[in-house]
Write a structure and sequence with these properties.
- This protein has helices spanning about 10-15, 15-25, 45-50, 60-75, 85-90, 110-120, 135-140, 160-180, 185-195, 195-205, 210-220, 235-245, 285-295, 310-315, 330-345, and strands at about 30, 35, 50-55, 80-85, 100-105, 125-130, 145, 225-230, 250-255, 275, 300-305, 315-320.
- The chain has about 375 residues and is an alpha/beta fold.
- The strands form three sheets. Strands 4-3-5-6-7 form a five-stranded parallel beta sheet, with helices on both faces. Strands 9-8-10-11-12 form a five-stranded parallel beta sheet, sandwiched between helices. Strands 1-2 form a two-stranded antiparallel sheet.
- Helix 4 runs antiparallel to helix 12 (about 235-245).
- The chain is globular, with a radius of gyration of 20 Å.
- The structure holds fructose -6-phosphate.
């Protein structure tokens, strides 16, 4: 059911306020200033014994895991490792009894992710799932987990499942954090900010025409770079994946500081860079990277925070997202990137919901 939208992808982008509302429903415990994730099937003693977290997934799911890594490390001070499920399954990674493995998968059927689940179980690990499809193979084969409740995702390009996954990681980070270093005051503040997200997501999506105009301007670029740091690094990877999947434009995502280590050689007037630079701990670092790109005549599209009056002087085009904690910003900054890929693909006449060579669920290796 397209509900009047021309493509499932656009419908699913606009489903996001509701999807993340569903992902948080019944899980915010403002009284105790923590998150409730009963599906993990772990009591506080067991949760406290976790010493290390490994996150595995493919494609977009792995990108959500990378954002999750930064969230869990900063709120719960636990070491986190993220790997491609396909690499992890053959790596013979050293694991011990205090490690918990999280398998992230919208479909719950991805062959490599399932194999990583089975390999981890063989090693005696506790494996938990973050899945969307209820009753899917990964959901069934894990000891517990968290359902995203994003609703069916039909467009091949993952959109609402990504923001729901990031939200689940946010809740997990709050829960693990509150068992460790996070004060009730900080926990409550975060939960209150999380509650505001659906409205903020809706307010960003309402400005989709601004993104369409940017998409039209750059649709004939030779390629596109997506650059971000820290909480925005996973978003840079995700923005590039969305762009290449549905437009076939060569797109790369990198941590912004990697520019100097090789990537900057690609910059010229036909290679635009999308910078993820909301007001966060690395904002000034991003500004210097933008200046380096501008000095080489590279066009710059910035995704910045409302009220930022410096960015306009540097970037060619700016899309503003509401101000919020840097921990929550990824859920807002990814939205214009989804829309940018969508409108670029539509402008180029691509088959948005069924891009060439891709399948929604990759059940073979
Ligand atoms: C990207 C995309 C793929 C999937 C990947 C994992 O838009 O859709 O990269 O994210 O194939 O799929 P799931 O989450 O079903 O395991």
């Amino acid at each position: 059911d397209l509900s009047g939208y021309p493509h499932y992808m656009l419908k699913e982008i606009f489903d996001q306020p509701e999807a993340i509302r569903n992902a948080m429903r019944g899980r915010l415990d403002l009284e105790e200033a923590t998150a409730k994730l009963g599906g993990l099937n772990m009591n506080p003693q067991q949760l406290l014994r976790i010493q290390r977290i490994v996150i595995v997934g493919c494609g977009t799911a792995r990108h959500a895991g990378i954002v999750g890594e930064y969230l869990i490390e900063s709120l719960a001070h636990l070491p986190v490792e993220v790997d491609y499920a396909s690499e992890f399954r053959y790596r013979n990674a050293p694991l011990d009894g205090e490690t918990v493995v999280f398998a992230v998968s919208q479909s719950g059927e991805t062959a490599d992710t399932l194999a990583a689940v089975r390999e981890s179980k063989r090693k005696g690990m506790r494996v938990l799932g973050i899945c969307n499809q209820v009753g899917s193979t990964i959901a069934r084969e894990t000891e517990g987990g968290v359902y995203m409740h994003a609703g069916p995702e039909i467009g091949v390009a993952a959109t609402k499942s990504f923001t729901s996954q990031v939200l689940v990681f946010l809740l997990l980070a709050v829960l693990l954090g509150r068992l460790r270093y996070l004060s009730a005051r900080q926990g409550k503040k975060l939960l209150e900010a999380i509650e505001k997200l659906p409205e903020q997501v809706a307010s960003v999506l309402a400005r989709h025409e601004e993104v369409r105009a940017i998409a039209e301007k750059y649709a004939h670029a030779d390629g596109m770079l997506f650059l971000g740091r820290q909480f925005q690094y996973g978003i840079a990877l995700e923005g590039a994946l969305k762009m290449k999947e549905i437009t076939y434009i060569r797109a790369e995502g990198h941590p912004a500081a990697e520019l100097k280590h090789g990537v900057i050689a690609l910059i010229d007037e036909r290679m635009p860079s999308v910078f993820l630079c909301p007001q966060d701990g690395v904002y000034d670092k991003n500004l210097s990277n933008i200046a380096e790109v501008k000095a080489r005549r590279g066009p710059v599209i910035a995704i910045a925070s409302e009220g930022d009056d410096r960015i306009g002087e540097l970037a060619d085009d700016v899309f503003f997202v509401p101000q919020c904690s840097e921990l929550l910003a990824p859920i807002l900054t990814v939205l214009p990137l989804q829309l940018l890929a969508y409108y670029t693909a539509v402008g180029l006449g691509r088959d948005v919901d069924k891009p060439r060579n891709l399948a929604k669920s990759v059940t073979v290796e």
